[in-house]
Amino acid sequence: IQFNSIQFNSIQLLITRLTGHKMQHPPQRNMRRIVGTGTICLVLLTLDVPRVCNSFPVSSSILHTRSVSARSSFPTEAPGVLISSHQQPPNTNTNANTNVNTNTNSKICLFSVRPNSSDFLNIFTGDVPLLDVRADVEFTKGAFPTSVNIPILDDEQRRLVGTCYKEQGPEAAFDMGRDLMNPEIQAQRIHDWTNFIEAHPNGFLYCFRGGSRSNIAQQELKKVGIDFPLVEGGYKAMRTFLIEDLEKSIKELPMVMIGGRTGSGKTHLLKRLPRHVDLEGLANHRGSTFGRLVDEETTQINFENSLAIEFLQLRNAGPRDTVFIEEEGNRIGRRTLPVSMYHAMVEHLPTLILDTPIEERVRTCVQDYVTDLFPLFESAYKENAHEIFRKRHLDGIDRIKKRLGGKRHGLIHHQVSAALDLFESSGDTSGFYEPTETVLREYYDPMYDYQSNKQRKGPVLFQGDAESLIDWAEKNAGKFLH
């Protein structure tokens, strides 16, 4: 019997589903036949099924069919697993415990019969795993949170196929793409794709348009007995769906902003509320001059995709209770909020104002931007961590030099530099407190007051400390619709 690891593991799970009991590992491995309605259903090798069930994740949506005829044509729209035989055994009434001739010339062919899909709503609300076969440069520019990139072609090969597509059409591009996959590349790709499918049997694959590259990947997988569905329309169709749906979410979701001065602890409070979207988390930036983290900021496309998906999931999760977001400017780091969303934040979204004493705000800033942040620098930059950490902070002070004025900038720059020296030599963060308070009082607070008084037109629903604000929000979360 010939089958690959996906077929081997899935067969054992299917047998448990078909027979209704767990099969035990016999003293000697032998061949068994399970007979169902119609003609022969399966020929299998019994093993320790419970062990496989615990270690091999297969979505229940795949294993629905209880019996399959080898001669029948399986409906493409039905969920299930099809197992066929190249040589049909004699038509007998052999029961499930009868031994089978081990010399039978059989080949087990197992594949998912899930069809290709354009059901973007379920793909994104269900966090379905996605196999992205586009080139690395395309994936880096924009993808989806559940995507894994295993490209069928490298960046240069992708450029050649794209040119061929424009000049000669899809058939010529398909042939070129297939020819560019030499045997070594082909074997590695199939190995990597198979590993992904083993881990995510309920997933889909996609390329840019759901065309040449997706079809090549499907054909190569079929050669090893795997039928893995693709997303119709590919990345382009999914991206269009999300952008259109994002506008719908902004109009339909009842949103309330958490406002307050820099260092108030808005992000910490936001994460304690049940239905929230962390815009700074999606952007991978804390939203201030000093808010850049160790990892690169999310790309603009990925920021928009992730935001659209979070809103979509909240909109389809049940009752339309309030969704809390943090009050932001039109930019978070280098990422830009959707125009319609920023317009809603300025023109009509209501706000809850978090009041926090200046001493606590200073402590929060030092905790967030020094104590908690530096270990990430150590992990990423090793022996160069302090040097890069110093440059990041002093560059931040320099970026607000014009607003601070030359004399005040020089004083704060000197204080932060001394604080960094003390921190490097002893781990003491106390040197950051004085310059942090100065920056809060003389730079961030005036800017926040101006924006709140002149630009925000929505109502203030409540103002108070963290605990009273959370209590008020939980009691009133279902009341705000717009």
From TrEMBL:
SMART domains according to UniProt: RHOD
Single GO biological process annotation from the record: tRNA wobble uridine modification
UniProt GO molecular function: tRNA 2-selenouridine synthase activity
UniProt entry tagged with the keyword Phosphoprotein: no
Source organism superkingdom: Eukaryota
SUPFAM superfamilies from the UniProt entry: P-loop containing nucleoside triphosphate hydrolases, Rhodanese/Cell cycle control phosphatase
Electron transport is among the record's keywords: no
Gene3D superfamilies registered for this protein in UniProt: Rhodanese-like domain
Protein keywords: Selenium
Domain (Rhodanese) ranges: 124-247
Name of the protein described by the UniProt record: Rhodanese domain-containing protein
Species assigned in the record: Chaetoceros debilis
